């Protein structure tokens, strides 16, 4: 009798386990293309992608004043865990049908100076819902449509923060749709909230200091948990940052630094070339005509302490832009049926800019490869000669040229920002 009971309960357990597994599979995927998602739904979508794809990772960057998690998604095809998973899958398939397996195109690995990270952030300004939707569309394209975007994925790594100001974003759903700032109370003031995009430590002092204003810069640089969290992740990826893109709405423009001054940075032509690539791609797609120029010139205002000036001026990313999305006709929160068309149109522009960012910096990567090849040839030659002369050459003498070549490489400054 006890044996039968045991058998029965085992059977039951198996049934429960398979049911649980099944349930995990059918957790509905939030529809990112046809509606504005709440913060919780967005996080659920990110979790869904992390569980589904081995090239996706999530990072919690920090907590907001209202204890919401600020999350970044990292999409990195060349990550070790993904390449291992891809290899496992290939081997498994080969066992069944050798002819079905095509050789894997080689990944492009960055050199020591090779920057390969694209960083996109959106939703700093709470009411700019369409910027969040567009960031989610980028995430959708790079994950669920990764086969279409493989060319981009094998060269570049993506870090995307779709909602940089979750407290403010949620507030626009439940209380005030026109809210812009975050939701942390300001000390010694009856006002609430700081404009996170004026709170970065780059010409911060020139920003608006009245706490009642919509563009209040905060009591000091990085006074806000959101901006501190962003600063920390940007610092972490400083060496590899290739192109930083900040999404806003709704001026329909692609702009480059500076915001704090009407002067142009030395490399403005490179920035403009990048912005024009995005503009032209969108124009060719559906005829929409974005304006291109520096932030201060195009907005006719000086904007201090913004994230894009900070990333360009302090973090030293070679390429940094702001994209003010559509639509001038429909405002910050275009109707749901516009989300998908605006998302797809914007992706055309953003994808083109990512490609162009890689091409703009590619000469530097190539230069590095040439230096390496030269150094290795120089190192090999005496080694071969030494081999020919005698087999009893002391090992260190044979290795010296290689060590020297390594030193040459280390000391050779490859210009990344030019
Ligand atoms: Zn904005």
TrEMBL record:
Required cofactor names: Zn(2+)
Record: active site: 324 (proton donor/acceptor)
Name of the protein in its database record: Carboxypeptidase B-like
A Pfam entry, by short name: Peptidase_M14
Gene3D superfamilies: Zn peptidases
UniProt signal peptide: none
UniProt record similarity statement: Belongs to the peptidase M14 family.
Domain called Peptidase M14: residue spans: 35-357
Gene (UniProt): LOC105230600
Tree of life domain: Eukaryota
Cross-referenced InterPro entries: Peptidase_M14
PANTHER family: PEPTIDASE M14 CARBOXYPEPTIDASE A DOMAIN-CONTAINING PROTEIN, PROTEASE FAMILY M14 CARBOXYPEPTIDASE A,B
